[in-house]
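#dry-run=false #mode=assembly
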Amino acid sequence: MSENPTPEIIEPTASAPRVRAGKISSRRIEHYVAPLEETPLQSVDKVDETATPLSMWAQAWRSLRTQPLFIISAALILLVIAVAAFPGLFTSTSPTSCSLEFARQGPSAGHPLGFTFQGCDIYARIMYGAQASVLVGLFTTIAVVVFGGILGALAGYYGGWLDAILARLADIFFALPLILGAIIIMQLPAFRENRSIWTVIITLAIFGWPQMARITRGAVIEAKSSDYVMASRSLGLSKFKTLVKHVVPNSLAPVIVVSTISLGIYIVAEATLSFLGLGLPPSIMSWGNDIASAQISVRNNPEILMWPALALSITVLSFIMLGDAVRDALDPKSRKG
Amino acid sequence: MSELLKKPTMFDSAQDDLPLLEIRDLAITFTTPEGPVNAVRKAHLTVMPGETVAIVGESGSGKSTTALSAIGLLPGNGKVTAGQIIFDGEDITHADEKRIIELRGSSIGMVPQDPMSNLNPVWKIGFQVQETLKANGLAGSNSKERVAQVLSDAGLPDAAKRAGQYPHEFSGGMRQRALIAIGLACRPRLLIADEPTSALDVTVQQQILDHLDTMTSELGTAVLLITHDLGLAAERAEKIVVMYKGQVVESGPALEILRNPVHPYTQRLVAAAPSLASKRLQSQRTEVAEEINAVVKAEHEITDDDVLQIKDLTKVFKIRKGLGRSEDFTAVDNVSLSVKRGTTTAIVGESGSGKSTVAQMVLSLLEPTSGSVIFDGQEMSNRSEKDLFKFRRRVQPIFQDPYGSLDPMYSIYRTIEEPLRIHGIGNAKSRQTRVKELLEHVSMPSSTMHRFPNELSGGQRQRIAIARALALNPEVIICDEAVSALDVLVQAQILNLLNKLQEELNLTYLFITHDLAVVRQIADDVCVMQHGRVVEYATTDEVFNNPQSEYTKNLLRSIPGATLRL
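#status=ok
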């Protein structure tokens, strides 16, 4: 560093401005100097080359993998996914070979959870019912993230009339209660006649996208005012490319958190609709349908209702816990002191 | 001042032998998820009654932590692990909550750093002052008058009316005065002022510190002033304590330390303090040339072309005032200036002077309302996209906030490579060589390129931002407060780097800053702006040695430490 020479004194030319010459104490002040060995001087602003480079995702993963909340929820989710993908591996009993002679019987060898009112094996039905729930949750989330995310990002980034229209549109959907809206939509002839997993997914997505659009819009607005966006624009990157390359990647964190949590919520919503007889047709095995059909025996054999309900709760809980864990990892500031 | 204020002053020599505050071998440890961090080790300092002591250090040196421990305001995860804090003969290191609360306000006052966030926005200013008085049992039947008195003592005009206003109706300087009023409301014997003016403009800073000076010397209050600015410390305190990495490395009489720093860290600090430096940084080459023949340089300058010209630039913003109505706000008013190739022109002004708006218009990120920007003889407005794209290669910005100007998702390599990629320069291999070369230019090890911005310090990030700006071999670089957010030593380093690069690459800088001290080190020409207008435009030497406008004179006088005789 170059040595700075002693300053020239600025002589103010204006009429008698106060010259601040510093204060001199009447007391004797000791001039103390710490021995150099105690705080060895380090070179200014040196790069620590020993640490391993970590991207934001890698850092998040690092803090995530030691969190018990994450480990438990991830293990449960993996289990649920395995069951949904290969139910045959977990049970050798057919869920559809029901026989009334076993109706409402308690647990027995090979049938750990007993039988339903119709004499079907409860354990087998839970294993096979996982598929419908997980598929509905997964595809609804994908649809919502794609549709709501894109609209929200465009609205937030370009603003103006696009933003105004989308915001009002989202408000309209927000104002409709999900169940009421779903009842009406599922009653439409086109939906009523071809009820399947897909009709449920479409219905849930129609009511789910505004939330995702709002979250994305907020995140994009925050990211677009950053200096790095301005820097990229002044490097000559076009407006749209800046959105794709800089703004969207930096807005993903809240979207990931919210979509993890809402995956669980969509599974519940599917079960609710099925319970009301509006969701999946009875021909498709699902937890919601099983809970609905267990209603009649809830007084004498509550366990028939309890088991599918428990499976549903655990699945939903683990998605919500995962969402919490991911939020803590992606946004360390939100962590409790 | 009123009767109320006339407490016996503590300057009688018989009384002053006992220190008011004494911190002995203090150690403070923070528990973090990454393990314990020793923020302060073996710190010791004494404040005598009526004395002003300044703690100076860079961010993270433990200066605020040390001071806050004296009133038990350490954050939840911080703990005093060793040493003693003695206030007025009483050991308060581990005093219970009740005793500390008794001391706060009435014996030890506090002025916090950020005037914008330290007043509660939902309560009137008067209420917040009254709160302090009440907490210390000083609000009698005439509390309203007391509040007004306290506020007017702090230099708020028309105090009774001001007390009925909310914080958002106050400017930054007025809020800081209100905070000072709160801090001094109960006539404490010690006032801890944590960077009381670093968020304010220099002229306001000077006024407020002057006022604080007058008040505390009238009341005989001792002040523990925490600051990063050595010049300011020397000017306002009798005693300076320099902290580095949690330790006190040097302490002594203020002027003595400035004249004769002993510890190498203090020496570094004194050498780098911009407010004490007086001359344009020069690389050795020009210095030699200048000595041989100054005339040649002058001639050379005349033949130089104006790479950037700004003519009658005006920007009017529409401010929405309710439905359908809007009001015009002229942010930039008829600004003209020209920048010669290879030189630095600084645009100086306080907040709201329109200097950053000028920068954005020069960068074509903002459309001027009228007037023109002429770059290398070509008019900038109404240019085609293609021309603009070419222009981008030749003019690049460096922004203020080193934490915001790099995309946290991009590795350093991707960040610096981005401009090359956008402009389709070279292939993967040649780009990698270029990135390495650029990192070398800004004195960063090439291993940095696999790192991410969050692993680097502010100064290092700023170097990366410079490397990115240099990637396309631009001719002009617009530095928008490029060093304002950095610690003094790092700031000096970056300024030297910018200067070196200017020499090597014949760069032209348009340097936008609020800090006149920095201007002196880097600029050849200075353009002083106030309320969107240019009030003075001349060479740096002329502006500093013979300022013409009253505003410039005032600005110059306000540089902390500028009038110290060393």
